[in-house]
Amino acid sequence: MHSAIDHLLADGPPQLLPARELMAFTLASHILLVPFGVALPAITLLMHYRGLRKGDAVALLLARRWSAVMAVQFAIGIVTGTVLSFEFGLLWPGMMGRWGDVFGLGFGVEAWAFFLEAILIAIYLYGWRRLNPWTHFWLGLPLPLTALLGAFGIVAANAWMNTPRGFTLDRSGNPVNVNVRQAVFTPMFGPEYWHFVVGVILTAGYVVAGVYAVGLLRGRRDRYHRLGFTVPFSVAAILTPVQFMLGDSIARSIFHQQPVKFAAAEIVWKTGTHVPEYMFGRLHPDGTISGGIKIPQLDSILAGFSPDTKVTGLTSVPASDRPTATQATIVHWAFDIMVTIGSLLVLLALWYGWCWLRRRDLPRSRWFLRCAALAGAACLVTVECGWITTEVGRQPWIVYQNMRVSEAVTGTRASSLWAMFGLVVVVYALVFGSFLAVLLKMSRRWRLADEGALAGTTAEDLEGDTPYGPRPLSAAGGRDRGDE
User: Fold this and answer.
1) d(CA 182, CA 94)
2) Which keywords has UniProt assigned to this entry (predicted)?
3) How, if at all, do strands 282-283 and 277-279 pair?
4) Mean pLDDT in residue range 129-137
5) How far is residue 470's CA from residue 460's CA, in Å, rounded to a whole number?
6) Could you tell me where the DSSP H helices lie in 127-170?
7) Chain-centre distance of CA 41, in angstroms?
8) Cβ atoms within 10 A of the Cβ of 328, count?
9) pLDDT by residue (tens digit) across 59-117?
10) Rounded Cα gap, residues 395 and 261, in angstroms
11) How far is CA 163 from CA 112, 227, 310, 409, in A?
12) DSSP summary character for residue 482
């Protein structure tokens, strides 16, 4: 443990470690909410459309309940996102001061998308009982687009940090002649953006489906649980093989654009051909690898479709310009965990697809439902692993090959940063605890409403005075014509 900390502190001021730890904690916490902020509106509107198109009251009930979760999640995202916004300026003034004019547009786009999304969520929630059904749906349709716009801004900023473009440097090393288009659409932007978007959609799909998989395992085999499982799981299952191919594409982009990061992810020490692939394993400072499974020549084949492909090693650059052995091992494990989980999810999606094509029904094995229930948590792990691969693999650079993390860090005393770190941990524990408590309370209320419906009382009777529940009957005694 001390050895790892020593590596992290090497060639850096004392405040570097607490600044890194604070940023890592807040990012790792916030990123768990991102799949739902970006993708849950789309999944909710898909269920909403199904309800209106087929006159399906169960689908409308699910969409309405999911919209309530969406609003609560967005409120929590406001807290964690605001903290992150302040941290960029407080912890890394060197980067924001020098490079903000080059890549800051991405943060501006994300901020505008954030405020627009807040307005649209409010309209969508308000409209459940007050607007014509189809008018309400069309007003909600821009929600996923604003979420994707916000993702566009953030990914553009991160892609620029990985492959900075759109500027020249003056004699003092400051950026001039900024080209905004080149700064936004960097070589890594396309691969990162589509990998991110598809990843968060399938993650949200698996998480939502996992909730209903647990209900199905507990014997709740009603249409409510089957539909709540089938729609989001189908979306996730369709996108899983697509994401696997996108993951392969972004790995190859890293091989070409950031060869040292690729070397860290694959723990390649020396440049050469016929490079083996290691599944897991640990890289030591002398270049030796212990543990793991060695597959001869596979790394060269995966990188360039030929064993003769030359793979750049970590020693191709000075030790001060590359991740340490500890950091490379962290990146390698994160990458391998992500690939392993992705492969298992492809098998799960194929299992589901095979049974659906044959019988138009879910797989009957309880093991399928158990795996489906775990898939959401596994996807959240891959989200964290993807972030670790992207950020730790870029070390020691905060702006790749242009500014080191140690050059960007604040001059605030380390003790003050550690105190701030402790305060943020306490606040986040309270915030996420409150989030889970609210979700559990809503879940219990919804279950009581459903049980009341089974006993002869409709869910409308129990939920009519709350923001959750099916669309009310029209004054004429039937549902609005838009529901049919």
Assistant:
1) 22
2) Cell membrane, Electron transport, Heme, Iron, Membrane, Metal-binding, Transmembrane, Transmembrane helix, Transport
3) unpaired
4) 84
5) 6
6) 133-140, 142-162
7) 15
8) 26
9) 888 998 999 888 888 888 888 888 888 888 888 888 888 888 888 888 888 888 888 88
10) 8
11) 24, 43, 21, 20
12) G
Q: Name residue 294's beta-bridge partners.
A: 278
User: Tokens 């775990």 identify what position?
Assistant: 374
pLDDT at residue 328 is higher than 80 = yes
Residue with tokens 């005694």: 477
CB atoms within 10 A of CB 143: 22
Looking at the chain, how many residues does it have? 484
Distance CA 390, CA 199 (A): 14
Question: Would you list the domain boundaries of the chain?
Answer: 2-252+389-483
Give the pLDDT confidence score for residue 332 in this predicted structure.
Answer: 92
In DSSP notation, 49-76 reads HHHHHHT-HHHHHHHHHHHHHHHHHHHH
| Whether residue 8 has pLDDT greater than 60 | no
DSSP string, 390-445: HHHTTTTEEETTTEEHHHHS--S-HHHHHHHHHHHHHHHHHHHHHHHHHHHHHHHH
Shortest CA distance to 18 belongs to which of 32, 31, 5? 5
Q: Which residues partner with 311 through β-bridges?
A: 272
